[in-house]
Amino acid sequence: RPYIGDRPTFAPLPEQFPAWPHLPLLWAPAPRLHLPAPVVGVVENRGEAGGRRFLRFSVSSRRGARALNVHVPAGRVLEAWVDGRPVHVARSVPPGKRSWVPVGWFLDYANPAPEGVDVRLLLEGAGRCRVTVTDQSSGMPPAPPSSVIRPAHAVGIHDGDLTMVVQTFDL
C-alpha cells in the first residue's frame, strides 16, 4: 500500500462528500493541491408564498471537468429544474439506513457545456441554503515529485482515477 500512504483508513468524509455522510471510504492523508474550484453564480433569489424560496443559479467548472455534482441538504428542495427541465425530487432515505443512497437533493450532471448548468430550486424555508458543488475530471492531477500515484502493475477502474474539487456555497 505504499501508493496510498502508510496510514490508509476507512471512514466517512462528510465535508468532502455531503451526499453520503455515512459511507465509509478508503482515504489517506495527502498534500493539498490548489486547483480552481467550481463556480456558482446566483441568477435569481426571491421569497415565495408560505415562507418558501426560489433560487436560480448557474454552476460551471473552471477546469473543464467532465461532470458536476450539486448537493443540497435534506429537507430543503421541494421542486427542481435543470437546464429548464423539471427533475424528480426524491425523498431521502433516513440516515444510516443505506449508506450508498444520497442524503438530500443530489444532481450528477455529465458533460456540462462550458458555460455551465442552469439550476432552479424551490426551497422549503426562507433562510440561506448550503450548496456543495464538486467537479470531477478523469485522471490524477500532477503530484508532488515525492509522490507515487499508483505502481505500474496496478490498474485503475472506471471511476478510480478522478480529480475532484469541492466548493461549498451558502446562498
Structural account:
- By secondary structure, this protein is mainly beta.
- The protein contains no helices and 11 strands.
- It has strands spanning 9-11, 25-27, 39-48, 52-60, 67-72, 77-82, 85-87, 105-110, 117-123, 130-138, 162-170.
- The strands form 3 sheets. Strands 3-4-9-6-7 form a 5-stranded antiparallel beta sheet, with no helix packed on it. A 4-stranded antiparallel beta sheet has the order 8-5-10-11, with no helix packed on it. A two-stranded antiparallel sheet has the order 1-2.
- The chain starts with 8 loop residues before the first strand and ends with a strand.
Number of strands: 11
Q: Which whole number gives the mean pLDDT?
A: 83
Number of H/I helices: 0
Major sheet attributes: 5 strands, antiparallel
Shape: elongated
| Element order: H for helix, E for strand | EEEEEEEEEEE
| Rounded Rg | 18 Å
Per DSSP, what share of the residues sits in E-state strands of 2 or more residues?
Answer: 35-45%
Structural class from helices and strands?
A: mainly beta
**Order of the strands making up the biggest sheet:** 3-4-9-6-7
- Tell me roughly what share of residues is in helical segments: under 10%
Termini distance?
41 Å
Which oligomerization state do the chains in this entry correspond to?
A: single chain
Low-pLDDT stretches are none
